[in-house]
Protein 1
Amino acid sequence: MAEDINKIGMYICSGCEIGSKIDVEALTETASKSSKCDVAKTHPILCGKEGIDLIKKDIEESGLNKISICACSGRVMKDVFDFGENILLDRANIREFVAWTLHSDADDEDKTFLAEDYMYMSLEKLHAGNVPVPHIEETTSKTVMIVGGGKTGLNAALNAAETGHEVVIIEKEDKLGGWVGKFKKSFPTKPPYTDLEESTINDLVSKVEGNDKIKVHLNTAILKTSGQPGQLKVEFQNGSAPEEMVVGAIIQATGWKPYEPEKLGHLGYGKKNVITNVQMEEMVANGGIKRPDGGDIKSVAFIQCAGSRDQDHLPYCSAVCCRVSLKQAKYVLEQYPDAKVYILYKDMRTPAQFEIFYAKMQEEKNLFLTKGEVVGIEEGSDGGLKIDLDETLLGENITVKADMLVLAAGMVPTTKVDEAEEADTSESEENVETPAEAELEDGKKPAATGEKGAQILNLTYRQGTDLPTLKYGFPDSHFICFPYETRRTAIYSAGCVRAPMDSMNAERDAAGAALKAVQAIKNIEIGQAVHPRAGDKAFPDFFLQRCTQCKRCTEECPFGALDEDDKGTPKPNPNRCRRCGICMGACPERIISFADYGITQTGNQIKNISMPEEFDEKPRVLVFMCENDAMPAFDIAASRRPEISPWIRIIPVRCLGSVNVIWINDALSSGFDGIMLLGCKFGEDYQCHFVRGSELADTRMENVSEKLKQLVLEPERVQIHTIALNEYEKIPAILNDFAEEIVDLGANPYKDL
Ligand code: SF4
Ligand code: SF4
């Protein structure tokens, strides 16, 4: 931690309408009288050259080490208000929080209180804060490890190698190429987009094998992955003796597996002449299409969405099956030109240029594309199939007869544990230790999100041995904002393990994930957080002398950054940390803080907000506002100049999960009449940028509510609300309605105690 000295300079801008709403001269005068402020100045355009030069000159001449900019939102002008890594900066948002949202009912006193509160809060925040010192390990690896040598893995390897990084590919099979290497032809990728193409996977494999930055391990399994980004220790085996290497970041590109056809009995699987699309590819690659019972092929039917888009099977679209069936129809027509081919679909999905291929295929005289719902399948005595269709475009039921039936089965990520495997695991889990589990120091099973997973990476993280998954078994951290991110820092997923996609999209995914992995390695080298708080330096300090080993921090950290010793004391892995502050919010002993975002900093801000004694005139409402969606939403709303209740004071927080209950207690005992937490949506379709932060906050608020009841205080005084960025129009009403509700509830009875 940096030396604890305070030389604070406060600079108040009067531009952007601030000067017309706030008496900036008076505010500067008040600031200059504070014992915590060494220099206070105002300027009409602080972000202009003259304003910045003024600040820089003061830093140099007066030895200022902490600067408060009372001006626009801290989300803008970041590059302008950057005074170097030795200066602790705070941005007091008096433009959006005060000038742009000033209520027409606010009298001069309200305006003064409002602006002064944000000014004092900034001084308190700086006074109790310190310049963050980055956590830099002496040695870190720059190597990118890629798990999976299919189309995605190969492209990721080439992309990472191109940036100068060493790359290691771990492939469990005996050759590179993955699924694409097993297919004879691919969809058209070049103009005129009408003809199937020979696979180019062998060229890609040759490029990888000829690249001296890329090392390939075939027939290899990962036994264990431990450590932290920059120092991930990987134990792997491709012979008798396990080997070990240290890598900086990992891309999991382990792809997909076909949906289990045994579950498609309702679509005829199990009857002798019914196969899947993958079995069709294998036939084509191994000598040609044959009817399994050896009979003639005069007609072939394809059933689309076999398992996909079906709530009882795979609720999602598998993205490629329509195009695969068109391709396989072409295979059939090339080998059996007189055969009739039927594609029976719910909808044909052929995006972008594949529509041209689809249109071209419609010109095939022996190809019949029919929309309908399959309602019955019968096997004839000759081994042929009768497929009954309902809800056709003609509104009639029809029956299609075919010698062979191909089910366009969907894609399942390799991270998804099969139900059978899951059952197996649960029966035997008392007795069987995975290699990773054996390393957990408390000897217990992974907790919290602790899915055993598909045991691909075999992580030794406290919270599970493999990548936590979101919906349907795909490992992703946040499906809206951060593609490739998983909940394990510097471990990315790409290609079909991340989402169903074709090989062209997998190639793009590979490039994205490779860049993320390289970025992560660079950030770790300089001790900075990776997404979403890229650039944050401080890692939380743990004052472990007062730790009661309650394990809340280790259990609640969404990123598995904290392991624990056998007593339950947290064992931080700083490079796994995303700087969300959820551990800080969780700790009942309040012994976790960041140099620049701490329990005391926020506590002191709360305690120094003006608290008029007369509720009837001046109630006070505190809002902890999440910096991820709620703050940007507020900024957008503010640009339209709405009126926001002058009773409200806003404290931006990194995540609602970082809000410690002590802050709520501080606020209630300081006399706040109402408290709101405003952050990202939680639940199944969560939008919390730190996965579980807003949900954890909601759980903690249930306890707060109980406490309020014990104190005979109305639970409505403390509320949690969620908002998405695109709901910015709702912000004024959410805040003003809450302020009104608090006015109706009356004063916090503990106000004057
Ligand atoms: S909870 Fe957040 S801040 Fe705390 S250790 Fe985990 S990632 Fe880091
Ligand atoms: S939450 Fe606080 S008291 Fe509990 S284990 Fe973590 S550091 Fe210790």
Protein 2
Amino acid sequence: MIVKNPKFEISAVGPKQYPKNNLPEIVLVGKSNVGKSSFINTMINRKKLARTSSTPGKTRQINFYNIDDFFYFVDLPGYGYSKMSKKEQEQVGKFIENYLLKREQISLIIFLIDIRHSPTANDRLMYNYIISSGLPCMILANKADKIAVTKVTDVVNSLQKELNPIGDIPTFPFSSERKIYKDDVWNFIDEHLEIKHPKN
Ligand SMILES: Nc1nc2c(ncn2[C@@H]2O[C@H](COP(=O)(O)OP(=O)(O)O)[C@@H](O)[C@H]2O)c(=O)[nH]1
Ligand SMILES: [Mg+2]
């Protein structure tokens, strides 16, 4: 896939600021610091279009990245940031749920977890919420560079079994650090976009 002109469009703090066109949206969901913003940069071959940080942020904004006027990557706020109060965490959870519930143009949810750890309690809550919404979803076990290459397949399989014992949600490894496994993810995204993007 060749992305030619990805653009940051808006940091929305509420539904009134969401883009008004009906482009499909591919949505990144995951806890703070799991690598959502890095994922976007990796997929579009840009170093810094999506803002990343090594210290989890407190943003309660939804960032929309317009990908060649074909679709949006939507960077949701991370949940489970330990330095937030319970109340703040609940507010972020509601903010995320409200977007997922109301936004009709969502084509796919990319749910990121950390390949090194079992899903957290918050991961499970969010995963269950996504499944109950009925929206198409894939699971990415991110930071795959942090474990031995020979273990990746087994670990991905066991993480999938933990979250999705029926095995109907596609689960892939990913690494923004090494920029590997991108093709599988692009293929899956392609299948979920009505308008096909020109391929390499
Ligand atoms: N080793 C490794 N680090 C990553 C990977 N993806 C993201 N990171 C790092 O994890 C931190 C948080 O990434 P970021 O994309 O800001 O996470 P977000 O809060 O989910 O948007 C940054 O220091 C990134 O460099 C990855 O695949 N492998
Ligand atoms: Mg981020």
Protein 3
Amino acid sequence: MLICNLNGKIFAISNICSHAEETLDCGRISNGWIACPIHGARFDLATGKAKNPPAKQPIPVYQVRVEDDWIEIAA
Ligand code: FES
């Protein structure tokens, strides 16, 4: 699992790219997506949907709740 902070909004997604099962944790984050650092597929942080090739399948996303200083994730 990978927890991302995009301008204060927290997302929890799978850390595994659906294309070739490489990790996403060094990927660039911008405009609601994360880019796989290996071949550049981008995934929507909210839905997990693949936004461009070579990935075609989505990645899992997890429900997040922020309470006070705690981040709770439904996994
Ligand atoms: S491993 Fe992520 S796009 Fe290929």
Protein 4
Amino acid sequence: MDEKIIIENVCQEKGVKILDNISAKVYDGEIFSIFGPSGSGKTTLLRLINRLDEKTSGHIYLDGVDIDEMDVITLRRRVGMVFQLPALLPGKVYQNILFGPGLFDRSKRDDTALALRYLKLVGLDEELLDRDGETLSVGQQQRVSIARALANEPGVILMDEPTSALDLTATLKIEELIKRLNRELKVTIVIVTHNIEQAVRVSDRSMLIVRGRKIEEGKTKDMLKNPKEELTEEFISGHLEEVR
Ligand SMILES: Nc1ncnc2c1ncn2[C@@H]1O[C@H](COP(=O)(O)OP(=O)(O)OP(=O)(O)O)[C@@H](O)[C@H]1O
Ligand SMILES: [Mg+2]
């Protein structure tokens, strides 16, 4: 499999060391999860991948190109982001979905057929297209956020705990959606979760980060069945909570 993202010796410091020499690979077409306790640096690392934040040192490559050499708008078009909370923009659902494409191509701004295609793709009903985003349930809003990310036709979508505001039923449905989109669109997905069960349900491979350091990386199921590191065992057994 081709390498989609290469993370190479990445450090991040803001007075304190937040990420300490992280290296990892995400392969094309896989679902990769980053898990670890609260405060371990998961969100920070995710944000570095589409340059919502700057690294102190190290490199990140997308399809073999250093992301620091890329125009940031192009990078964000190719690497979409879904946040922990849906964060819809004020306005209609279709305006939200078309936000990204509209930035790049003005003719797409009112392209309701395009908006409808992505609305359906994330499993929402056509009648929601013209609704105000804020009138939707949180689960529906998260689907719209995913549709908005997909509408740019990115090669990668980064998701930061996308189900943390949802109950179990809605969580499982979003997980099914994530897997279906990965399968059907061949989009590479990097998902941050603090929940091991979620990592097992959705991801092919994973890495565990604790206190800004990578502890282990590998196939999710192998890692959990046969952890190589003591910290992985501790995390699996729930004994590793807040560590900072
Ligand atoms: N701007 C900043 N200045 C100083 N410290 C920061 C800054 N941003 C994040 N941190 C610290 O970096 C560490 C990692 O934060 P991060 O948000 O990446 O953790 P996380 O693994 O996503 O945690 P959670 O599971 O709670 O979301 C935390 O200790 C946090 O307080
Ligand atoms: Mg976080």
